[in-house]
Amino acid sequence: MDLDLDLRKLRYFVAVAEELNFGRAAERLHITQPVLSRQIRSLEDELGVEVFDRSRRGTLLTPAGEQLFEDAVPLLASARALVRRVQSAAQETPTLTIGFMPGITVTSAMVAFTARHPEANVRLLRTSWDDQVEVLRDGRADVSVVRLPIDQHGLRVKPLFQEPRVVVLPAGHRLADRASVTVADLAPEHLLQDPDAVPEWRDVALELRGNRRPEVPAIHQVEEKLELVAAGAGVCVIPLSTARFYIRPDVISLPVEGLGPNEVALAWVASRRSPLIDDFAETAEETLARAEEQPLGH
């Protein structure tokens, strides 16, 4: 079957699939709900399948819709990346955009790289746990210093270094006067992040026994975590360099015995063929040394 998919209709479909509500999706897309409904019907006609089950229970994805959603998200990201890369290629000055996670300092790599490529325009893009891979797939960044684990599908990943993780507690916490704590010491605590991100805590956590874990709000930035910790809402586990970067008087960071390190790596889209990316990867491997393991003060 020879079918040219309309990317605009795919964007509309993804909005409805994410919201599972035509009204909210239409508002998000800044179009009217009848227009959105017609576009989705048109997409279904082109595909020859129904992608949504519209019933009294609400809007749900059909099996065909689930498959379309799985494929449409990376396809739209690739389309956005294509546009960005074509526009970048048209510029007279070659550009390299480097993503980096909070707490990671890329200055040494950037300085060494610009010394090798004074003609290049180097840009930096701060990322988060939510988008550190997405910025590569949609072309916002050419290469990114990431914290593992990530979805490595379609990416090249070059390990750089490991660093310890620490627990962040409110300043008046019962463990605040300790030089360090064990994972077992944290068993009674409420963790303000996905338990799978800290499997050592997950295995001993009291709140995970008997479905006693309170709901954790979506947290996208380190600053949000630290605000909640300072307010006594719970604790969080973050890399040492991040804790050093965000030092504040109302929280403390302590080493945790028995907690595995965080792995830092360089990632880029495997299909990219760029001498600038290759040179930066080599430079980053040479210059981004392992984070210093010095004890944090209270």
Write out key terms for the chains shown.
disordered C terminus; alpha/beta; 10 helices; 298 residues; single chain; 4-stranded mixed beta sheet; 37% helix; 5-stranded mixed beta sheet
Please describe what this structure looks like.
By secondary structure, the chain is an alpha/beta fold. Helices cover 37% and strands 20% of the residues. It has helices spanning 7-19, 22-29, 33-47, 63-89, 107-116, 134-137, 199-202, 222-230, 240-245, 275-287; strands at residues 52-55, 58-61, 95-100, 121-126, 143-147, 155-163, 165-170, 181-182, 236-239, 251-257, 262-269. The strands form three sheets. It has a five-stranded mixed beta sheet with strand order 4-3-5-11-6. Strand 1 (52-55) and strand 2 form a beta hairpin. Helix 1 (7-19) crosses helix 4 and helix 2 crosses helix 3.
Topology (elements, then pairings):
Elements: H1 7-19, H2 22-29, H3 33-47, E1 52-55, E2 58-61, H4 63-89, E3 95-100, H5 107-116, E4 121-126, H6 134-137, E5 143-147, E6 155-163, E7 165-170, E8 181-182, H7 199-202, H8 222-230, E9 236-239, H9 240-245, E10 251-257, E11 262-269, H10 275-287
Parallel strand pairs: 3-4, 3-5, 8-10
Antiparallel strand pairs: 1-2, 5-11, 6-11, 7-9, 7-10
Helix pairs in contact: 1-2, 1-3, 1-4, 2-3, 5-10
Strand order of the largest sheet: 4-3-5-11-6
The radius of gyration is: 23 Å
Query: In percent, how much strand structure appears in the residues?
Result: 15-25%
Q: Give the count of helical stretches.
A: 10
Structural class: alpha/beta
Mean pLDDT: 89
Helix content: 25-40%
Number of strands: 11
| Bulk shape | flat
Unreliable stretches covering 5 or more consecutive residues: 290-298
End-to-end Cα distance, whole Å, is 65 Å
Summarize the helix and strand pattern as letters: HHHEEHEHEHEEEEHHEHEEH
Largest sheet entry? 5 strands, mixed
